[in-house]
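anyone seen this seq b4? input:
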Amino acid sequence: MYKVVLIDDDRQVLQSMRKAIPWNELNAVCVGEGIDGKEGLRLVGELLPDIVITDVYMPVMNGLEMIKELRKNEYDGKIIILSGYSDFEYAREALKLQVDDYLSKPATVSTIREVIEHAVAQLRKKQSEREAQVELLHKISLYEPFVEREWLKSIVIGTVAGEHEEFILHKHPLMKSHYHLVLGVEIEATSRYSDAAAADRRLFRFAVGNVIGELLAQYWKTYELVELQGNSFAAILHVNRTQTDEAAVSEACGLGKRIIRSIQDVLGIRLRIGVGALQQHWSQISVSTEEAFLALAERENAVCGDAELYVFKKKENKTREATDQTLRPVKFYHQLAESIRSLQEQKAVDVVREFIRALRQFGETRPSSLVRHGSECLTIIRYTMFDVGKNMDDITMMKTATQSLESVGTPEALECWLIETVRLVCGHRAWNENVKHKQAVDFMVQYIHDHYAEEITLTELAEKVYLSRNYLSQLFRDAVGETFNSYVTKVRMEKAKRLLMEGKYLIYEVAEMVGYKNIPYFSTLFKKETGLNPSDFLK
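predicted toks r here
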């Protein structure tokens, strides 16, 4: 119901309007009456009506003076003047005060009704717009972290648009004030990782990202960590401008060794890390990324014997820059993965053709080189399918495509082979079904990882992605490989293990930090997931 206040020094007029107007039919209610402008100000301040209907000429304070005060006080409701004075000056002054309507007495009930109906319709429209804006702001707040990650990813791989520079520098002032180098991190495809279920691989990546983030925060402070396609990460290390290139790379190598050894000790997962060269401008961060992954691909310039850590060094016998040497494969692989992930077949085909042109331009036409590029593309496609719970080997024709790669001997043959593979994957019905609503599932997974310490329910997330609870539950199970509650528990237990291993917290503190108030229940879940009680795990 919309609230209405009536103000008129004629009590008979007030009584007539109160009784004659069909308030219920108009979805309105008369909440107060006043006999002068001063009393009207008090009523509006106390009752906060949506509509004010007022006379102009009244004792103590007239209607126009009252309206002036209301506007000064930022009253934004509807104001309707009902006056026996039709003087032009009154009407002109009313227009200046943004009065919604001006009626002359005597006005019929049908006329007043029509004016109130119009005011209510405008209020409904305004309320709908306000609710839509609130909903939009809510969506923006939810998706802002995802947008932020995409911005950073575009900087790392070199797809950021130049017109976004101001936004980037505002959000990340270190981009402007520091130099930068990149650590390219790959999870090795050991049986522990590759043979794991899709849900467990997600947890592995989550755990690896967590540990790397903790080590970066402890030993570097100024950094950005970005998850790339498949099993890769890129850490942007911001370097003080006073530091030399050699010192920065040496310190980054030390950090890389620490990361590799910590992940091996804590998670039993092997990493490979490449260190790119120091770049002076944020727009060249992608060059350092390419250099880091080129060092990994070539496995030259190893830093130490007991860890796969390689540092990029420009080859003296080549005149091309690092960006030429690498053909920007990280950018290409990311674009290929994203287009396949979203089933944009034509975009994937265009990306392939662009890459083949680059191969020709830079003379990468030897059969061995072409087969290597094709094999790397196949790996990217395989990991992209893994991410949505689909094994590429389930597509029978893919086995033939994999075998035919060995016979590729020209750029044209590689282009045909890649395009055929892309179309085979994007057109496969089972793959298509798996990709549906993947964005919703990705949002849920990331939300769980970001909010595991809070109370998270499937109903709450269903409201956020605008899908029914039951349907979302089935989607999540199909994409991730286990139930929503089971996955939340796994994420919490993974974090609990990390916190317990730090040795800084008591068991009840860890339980609360991962979202459990009931300590015995936490202990039961922990033992179910790890095979040990929290106290035994600590020992």
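The longest helix spans residues 109-157. The chain has 25 helices and ten strands. kinda curious what u guys think
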